[in-house]
Amino acid sequence: MFRSFSVFNYRVWFFGALVSNVGAWMQATALSWVVLTGLTDNDAGAMGVTMALQFAPPLLLVGVTGWVADRFDRRRLLVVTQSSLMLVGLVIGTLLLTGVMTLPLMYVFAFTLGMISAFDNPARQAFVSDIVAREIAANAVALNAASFNGARMIGPAAAGIVIVAVGTGWVFFINAATFLAMIVALFLIRPGELIPRVTSPGAARLADGFRYVRGRPDLMVTFAMVFLLGAFGMNFPIFASTMAIEFGRDADGYGLLSSILAIGSLAGALMAARRDRARIRVVIFGAGLFAAAAAVSAFMPDYWLYAVTLMFTGFAVVTTLTTANGYVQTTTDPALRGRVLALYMAILMGGTPIGAPIVGWVADQFGPRAAIGLGAVAAFVAFGVGVTWMLVSGRVHRSSSRRFALSLDETRPISVVAPEEFSDEVAGTTPISLPDATSDRPRRSR
Q1: How does DSSP assign 73-138, residue by residue?
Q2: What pLDDT is stored for residue 206 in this prediction?
Q3: Phi, psi (deg, nearest 5) at residue 19
Q4: Residue ranges of the Major facilitator superfamily (MFS) profile domain (predicted)?
Q5: For 90-104, 209-223, 257-271, which range has the lowest pLDDT when averaged over its residues?
Q6: How does pLDDT run across 72-106, given as a tens digit for each residue?
Q7: Per-residue pLDDT, 296
Q8: Which of 10, 52, 142, 329 has the most crowded Cβ, counting Cβ within 10 A?
């Protein structure tokens, strides 16, 4: 489960990310709560707009951000993006503490955070493949998810306590301080132990990532499922905050729901880390489980029963997304990995600008349970897309040993051949095969 920890650079990266992720979850909780209760009168629609502004840039800039992640040194790029996110957090905290923050101004900062994250996310995802070998990349991705969701267990609950005790603005200052852990980790990483970057003649073309995905039906199906979940099913800030209000809870009750969700998420990430490789059938299974868990949670009559269902929801969504991320990373041409991951993150996060305002409007007009039901329907459609593709692709067939049983083939591994780095030395010493002169001679007819 923890085999990636044998790599020094990954250990440094993991613990730096864990501290930073705690702060990130604290800030996300505070941002949602201040929009819902501080800058508006429980307006879930405004909250949906805020989420849309945060997640729109990765979709709008997908070609550029992926190219940047492939073209430039990812470690230095991450130092820049992490420092920028820290600075924005300090500014937001200052404006909140001085009482001059307004909803339009918060919209501007939400979009700014989205712009920076659009460059940070693909670089951060692809950087995992720079730290560990491809053979354990899926394990490293799953452990990253465990770090992310382990922080999710702590961050939202801690944010709720801080908000109730001293106010929302201080949460942003705490988050800014946690960014230092990631920045220090990036400087501690040993550059000489990083996996050599793969380059190719087509590395400068922005559209190569789109063409590559278009030729991979399995990735197209994975991206379609991820889009549906990201757009309508993963609006947890809207779901949890409006349900907390419906149950008569304050910010600490909202933060606790987010932390309880993370218990199931952490379990899903650790189980993904145990698997030898990422399989697309697990992505499909996770989408179906998410649909069922979300549908059940929409009918829970009290706070604690709803909280229990969130553990299953968290397990399902992290199983789906962690496996999908690992599958994309380990089956993509290394020279195009940054651009393909940028497209993956754009589809995952870019669905939010479409779905979050709709989910927020449904929550305002029909209540939070209807909004959760909409997410469950979207997850069921995603499950249907995956099952349909599985049947059409021939992976499901009648069992040869049992008369009325079906068997499911293993996910077919996709061979990845990494192109060699070009150098004059390689070009000068590589033998060139010549055609056999005798093979071109016409044969005599008898």
Answers
A1: -HHHHHHHHHHHHHHHHHHHHHHHHTT---HHHHHHHHHHHHHHHHHHHHHHHHHHHHHS-GGGHH
A2: 56
A3: -65, -45
A4: 1-396
A5: 257-271
A6: 888 899 999 999 999 999 999 999 999 899 999 99
A7: 95
A8: 142
Alpha carbon separation from 246 to 41, 132, 249, 354 (Å, rounded): 14, 46, 8, 25
DSSP string over 417-445: -PPPPP-HHHHHHS------GGGGSPPPP
Q: How far apart are CA 5 and CA 36, in angstroms?
A: 40
- Amino acid 152 reads R
Give the burial class of 446: count Cβ atoms within 10 A of its Cβ; 0-12 exposed, 13-18 middle, 19 or more buried: exposed
Find the helix packing angle between 280-297 and 303-330, rounded to 10°. Answer: 160
Q: How far apart are the first and last CA of the chain?
A: 69
User: Is 60 exceeded by the pLDDT of residue 201?
Assistant: no
Identify the CA nearest to 118 among candidates 56, 207, 47. 56
Cβ atoms < 10 Å from Cβ of 391: 12
Q: How confident is the model at residue 405, as a pLDDT?
A: 57
Picking from 197, 243, 204, the residue whose alpha carbon sits closest to that of residue 375 is 243
Cα 438 from Cα 396, distance rounded (Å): 50
